[in-house]
Amino acid sequence: FDPATLQKVVYRGVVFQAQGLAAGQFVSGAASGAIRILPGTDFDYPGSEDAGALDRVEAPLTLAAPPSVEGVDPFDPTAAGLYRGTLRLAADVSGALENVVLLKGGGVSGVLWIEGVRRGFRGRFGDNGELAITITRPGGAVNDIILSLILQRVVGADADGFRLGGTITADGKSFVVNAQKHPAYSKTNRAPQAGKYTVALAAPEGVDTALEPAGDGYGPLTISFLGNASGLFVLPDGTRTSFAGHLGVPYDDGISTVAEWSLHRGLYGKVPKGYLAGKLFFRDLADGWQPDGFLHWVKQPGASAKVYPAGFDLTRRLVGAPYLPPAAGERAMSGLADEFHNLWLRFSGPDLSALDSLDLFEIDRVATWPTSNRLRYFGPEAVMIRFDPRNGLLTGSYVDSANGVRISYGGALLQTQSRVAGAFLSQGEGGLFVAQPR
User: In what order do the strands lie in the sheet with 10-16?
Assistant: First the structure.
């Protein structure tokens, strides 16, 4: 079968074992011909060339600058609303404020996460825009949690620009608070970032896969017209988790317009044994609003029995891009040649083979991404490829029984970079999956 011409030819023959070949004949219409099948790969075929360097996710060279803020004294009743934010310990985000409701009279309640532990709190801001709360714990005052919050406003912003700052002290550590108010968007005043996105949590090069995953986390993201963020992360250790939140009011950082998103998600069970947390920035760039930032990913020892049971504590860069579902007859990845065999499927990282006699740390195979967005693989291995044009996710499986390879893989298409970034698991370790133009 020739996929380029859709011509199908049926042939028959016999194998000559002593001569190491097969011979036979075929019929095509009114004509017939001979066929010879010889062993060997010493000829050019799609994918016989070196695939070259792996296309890694490209992150912006600089991070967005945080907004300039000022204290609010006296307390301003228009600050009432819903807040979410992060708790930063030194360079890492290690906690969060969630579902914080501030009332016009200064009353406040919400949820506090510190290094994976959840606690509720309640109190009242004073007339000076400050709040002090003590959460008692067994063992005396030395174990108390002290909340010292300050009402702030982004300089030059309207009533949606209120924030919560200050510190939270627990276990001898001081966490810096940074929480944003949910802007009052509506159908007639829509969030400017509203739309679909895909994101990749990029692994650094040179990762020791015995200690931490070498793959890229990935997922789809949606920002509603109300500024609410929701989606799914597939982390490179195989963990799947939903996430939600909201974007703060846009501000000017001197280079572009920016909106903050405070993200926190407990992981590995109803009583979390880890978390994913960080501050992400949506920037209004030439290719549209694009999210990026750093996420702190913690997996405690014993959180998983089979995949990285010793756990890890990582900080990785998240990069995202707007996702536009393709029109009928249009490839979702625009950087591909309009021909067959236009895509590399690439697997790199841990040993992909379960055979003790074979070490296989890289596999490069050629596939076809047609305008129908129904990807095809023509080769001896059993390779399944599924692309969902609605959200930009690519998933599949690769089975090569003769070489002991049996993996599932997945990734997200970053349209502005013309590549799919993702991950796979093999022998309990995480590897990098990339789909890039050939």
Answer: 10-16, 21-28, 31-37
β pairing state of 107-114 and 117-124: antiparallel
Instruction: Return the DSSP state at 376.
Output: B
pLDDT at 3: 63
* Segment 214-239 mean pLDDT: 97
Structure confidence at residue 157 (pLDDT): 83
The answer to whether the beta carbons of residues 233 and 215 sit under 8 Å apart is no
CA 64 – CA 183 distance, rounded (Å): 20
* Cα 404 from chain centroid (whole Å): 29
Q: What is the mean pLDDT of the chain?
A: 94
**Quick check: is 219 in a domain?**
yes
Q: How far apart are CA 352 and CA 129, in angstroms?
A: 58
Considering Cα of 304, then 309, then 311, then 316, what sign does the dihedral take? negative
DSSP assignment, residue 416?
G
Among 115, 116, 110, residue whose Cα is nearest residue 135: 110
Are 171 and 249 part of one and the same domain? no
Element (H, E) at 314: strand 312-322
Query: Which residue in 404, 401, 400, 337 sits closest to 369, CA to CA?
Result: 337
Closest CA to 344 of 361, 366, 362: 366
Q: pLDDT of 137-164, one tens digit each?
A: 888 878 899 999 999 999 988 779 999 9
Confidence of residue 5 (pLDDT cuts 50, 70, 90): low
* 48 within domain boundaries: no
Mean pLDDT of the region 334-343: 96
- Residue whose tokens read 């802007």: 183
Q: In total, how many domains does the chain have?
A: 3
Burial string for 26-62 (b: 16+ CB within 10 Å, else e) reads eeeeeeeeeeeeeeeeeeeebbeeebeeebbbeeeee
Which residue type, as a one-letter code, is found at position 162? F
Full strand arrangement of the beta sheet holding 217-223: 240-246, 228-234, 217-223, 195-202, 312-322, 288-299, 274-285, 257-266, 251-252
DSSP SS3 for 248: coil
Write down the pLDDT at residue 374. Answer: 97
pLDDT given for residue 196 in this prediction? 98
* 187-221 tens-digit pLDDT: 999 999 999 999 999 999 999 999 999 999 999 99
* Dist. CA 379–CA 364, nearest whole Å: 12
In a domain, 60, yes or no: no
Closest CA to 236 of 169, 297, 325: 297
State which residues form the domain around 20.
1-39
